[in-house]
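Re: that backbone. Tokens:
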């Protein structure tokens, strides 16, 4: 078999898996796509007769490239203006049949979940994702991350405790999101209905109705990255969020349009100002109320969204 043909077959078979891993590692659609492309270019140009497990080999290539990318971007994250949110993964609603989403829908990829992953070290994140999401055995993970299987087992359990919000003896890190604020599972239909009520209240300027769909302790995060106007601190409580959103709607009256979309595996919104994309909004829900609103405004994170 010719190398080019082999690479093509590998691309079809493993691209969804590798993109799923890279996106969760990085929180960036464009960086994940770049890294997966780089990995397959490398495979196409390299003799791989010695490789016995191509799936693990490709995961190792992608994981190492993700860690390199995270190291180079760490300084940028430290000086980032305002809250940092993952780059949104946007698809049309009811797009479950799309092959590229196969692995992404196996486990939650909600914005809240991705933010929880950010508290993990790079190695912890890789081990956790390979075990929890992709169901790898510890021996396979050890080969990918270059550690012993026993060490990988310990890393996984430590990472799982951190993501679950459970205390880890000797670990002083605090979870990004307290366990009590986790999403209670809502059906796709229930989530869609809740977000539709949110949009109706927002577009009608009905503060009472808007506050009715928001949890009293809801939090809104807006990521402008210093590129556009955004709240540099989280906005807390339903009343403050409602008034903040009312101000935006008043300012953009007549120029704003909103469409529903699948954002990070859940019902979300894409907004346009004068026909140009201006934001992507995702939500966290609990007990049939919206507890978190994630507003991505940074134009660099919206370039891939139509």
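Recovered sequence:
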């Amino acid at each position: 078999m010719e190398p080019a043909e082999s690479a093509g077959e590998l691309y079809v078979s493993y691209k969804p898996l590798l993109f799923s891993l890279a996106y969760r590692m990085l929180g960036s659609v464009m960086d994940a796509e770049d890294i997966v492309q780089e990995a397959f270019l490398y495979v196409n140009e390299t003799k791989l007769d010695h490789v016995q497990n191509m799936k693990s080999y490709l995961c190792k290539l992608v994981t190492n490239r993700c860690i390199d990318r995270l190291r180079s971007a760490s300084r940028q994250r430290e000086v980032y203006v305002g809250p940092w949110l993952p780059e949104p993964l946007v698809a049309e609603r009811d797009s479950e049949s799309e092959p590229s989403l196969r692995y992404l829908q196996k486990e939650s990829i909600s914005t809240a979940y991705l933010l929880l992953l950010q508290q993990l070290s790079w190695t912890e994140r890789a081990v956790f994702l390979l075990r929890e999401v992709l169901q790898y055995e510890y021996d396979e993970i050890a080969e990918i991350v270059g550690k012993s299987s026993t060490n990988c087992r310990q890393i996984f359990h430590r990472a799982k405790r951190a993501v679950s919000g459970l205390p880890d003896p000797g670990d002083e890190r605090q979870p990004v999101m307290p366990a009590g604020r986790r999403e209670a599972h809502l059906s796709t239909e229930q989530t869609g209905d809740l977000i539709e009520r949110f949009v109706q209240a927002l577009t009608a300027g009905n503060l009472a109705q808007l506050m009715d769909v928001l949890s009293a302790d809801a939090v809104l995060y807006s990521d402008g990255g210093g590129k556009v106007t955004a709240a540099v601190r989280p906005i807390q409580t339903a009343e403050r969020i409602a008034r903040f959103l009312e101000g935006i709607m008043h300012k953009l009256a007549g120029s704003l349009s909103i469409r529903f979309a699948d954002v990070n595996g859940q019902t979300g919104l894409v907004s346009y100002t004068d026909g140009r994309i201006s934001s992507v909004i995702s939500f966290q829900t609990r007990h049939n109320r919206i507890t978190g609103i994630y507003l991505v405004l940074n134009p660099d994170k919206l370039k891939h969204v139509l």
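Residues 214 and 270 are 19 Å apart (CA to CA). The domain at 1-79 is CATH 1.10.1740.10 (Rna Polymerase Sigma Factor; Chain: A).
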